[in-house]
Design a protein that fits this description.
Elements: H1 23-38, E1 44-49, E2 54-59, E3 68-72, E4 83-86, E5 92-96, H2 99-107
Antiparallel strand pairs: 1-2, 2-3, 3-4, 4-5
InterPro entries: DUF2794 (IPR021252)
Protein name: DUF2794 domain-containing protein
Organism: Sulfitobacter delicatus
Length: 115
């Protein structure tokens, strides 16, 4: 049995073991998701909480690759922004510090002209 010296980081300052969406973030994402489902654009979603990133994936059909991924990467908070919308091919459609502003790139899909 060995005795370890106390850590310089307290239990309250330690990084979480996984990244997760906060309730307010999920509220914004699910609000957009509900409108897109009502418009018939999206059908399914999946949420992943990993060590470095939390991902909300949107699907047109269940057995496909995701149409879009909404990612939260806290390590990028001080650089490009921790929120990003990633397209099917892996291209980053929008990145920023404010989730609501980042999600606007997907809300444009709801606006259609009326004939």
């Amino acid at each position: 049995m060995s005795i370890e010296p106390p850590s310089s980081v307290s239990a309250f300052e330690r990084q979480p073991e996984q990244v997760a969406f906060h309730r307010t973030e999920l509220s914004l994402i699910l609000s957009l998701y509900g409108r897109m489902v009502a418009a018939g654009e999206w059908r399914d979603y999946g949420i992943s909480h990993l060590r470095d990133v939390a991902v909300f994936s949107v699907f047109r059909r269940t057995a496909e690759i995701p149409l879009y991924r909404i990612e939260k990467r806290p390590k990028l908070r001080n650089r490009q922004g921790m929120y990003a919308v990633v397209g099917t091919g892996g291209q980053i459609l929008r990145r920023g510090h404010d989730l609501k502003a980042v999600l606007r790139v997907l809300e444009r899909k709801l606006i259609r002209s009326v004939d």
